[in-house]
Design a protein that fits this description.
The structure is a single chain. By secondary structure, the chain is an alpha+beta fold. The chain is built from 9 helices and 5 strands; from the N terminus they run H-H-H-H-H-H-H-E-E-E-H-E-E-H. The protein folds into 2 domains: 105 residues, Ribosomal protein S4/S9, N-terminal domain (Ribosomal Protein S4 Delta 41, Chain A, domain 1), CATH 1.10.1050.10; 86 residues, RNA-binding S4 domain (Structural Genomics Hypothetical 15.5 Kd Protein In mrcA-pckA Intergenic Region, Chain A, Roll), CATH 3.10.290. Strand 4 and strand 5 form a beta hairpin.
Length: 213
């Protein structure tokens, strides 16, 4: 299955929550989710919000799995592979899964403030604008480790996008597990994130239950 290229606001409405897939637009009045369109997409979506239907356990598990998968922009096969990696690690499988997803290079680029959304960060990485540990890297799924360095490529800093972006970078807004030097547009991974560093709105236990059926 190819990556989803349709209207991403429809995904937010399907999950009944804002997934912040369009950057600044998601926090503006133009967001379709805010414009009285929080109901599910489709011909009968508006009627669905008035129906009183009992939600099954499977439905809640599936929706949470889809929600997490769409937030991080991961396809099903890759998401399942991350789940198996999380299972093999010590600790809670659900928390491990979120930590693995949070350690993806495209997510780290987003957390550092080089992009307004994860899809935008993924595109920047794919275009080869970043150097990881001295090597140009264009793999968004690359999993960072403690002491990894992430730097905007020398040639990319001359581009208009990064010149304007340098003025918006703020080291104070970066998660504590990352260190950013706005002047040199370089960052270091101090440690892997913990569950407390990741959104509390995600119910990872439902994802574990889904794959444990």
């Amino acid at each position: 299955m190819a990556r989803y290229t349709g209207p991403v606001c429809k995904l937010c409405r399907r999950e009944g929550d804002k997934l912040f897939l369009k950057g600044a637009r998601c926090v503006s009045p133009k967001c379709p989710f805010e414009k009285d369109r929080g109901y599910p997409p489709g011909a009968h979506g508006r009627l669905a919000q008035f129906r009183r239907r009992r939600t099954s356990d499977y439905s809640r598990q599936l929706r949470e799995k889809q929600k997490v998968r769409r937030i991080y922009g991961v396809l099903e096969r890759q998401f399942r592979r991350y789940y198996r990696v999380a299972e093999r690690r010590s600790g809670l499988t659900g928390a491990n899964l979120l930590i693995v997803l949070e350690s993806r290079l495209d997510n780290v680029v987003y957390r550092l403030g080089f992009a307004d959304s994860r899809p935008q960060a993924r595109q920047l990485v794919q275009h080869g604008h970043f150097v990881v540990n001295g090597y140009r890297t264009n793999i968004p799924s690359y999993l960072v480790r403690p002491q990894d360095t992430i730097v905007v490529r020398e040639g990319s800093r001359k581009r208009t996008y990064f010149r304007e972006r340098a003025e918006l970078l703020d080291a104070a807004s970066v998660p504590h597990w990352l260190n950013l030097d706005p002047g040199s547009m370089a960052a270091r991974v101090l440690q892997l994130p913990t569950r407390e560093d990741i959104s509390a709105d995600l119910k990872e236990q439902l994802v574990v239950e889904y794959y444990s059926r």
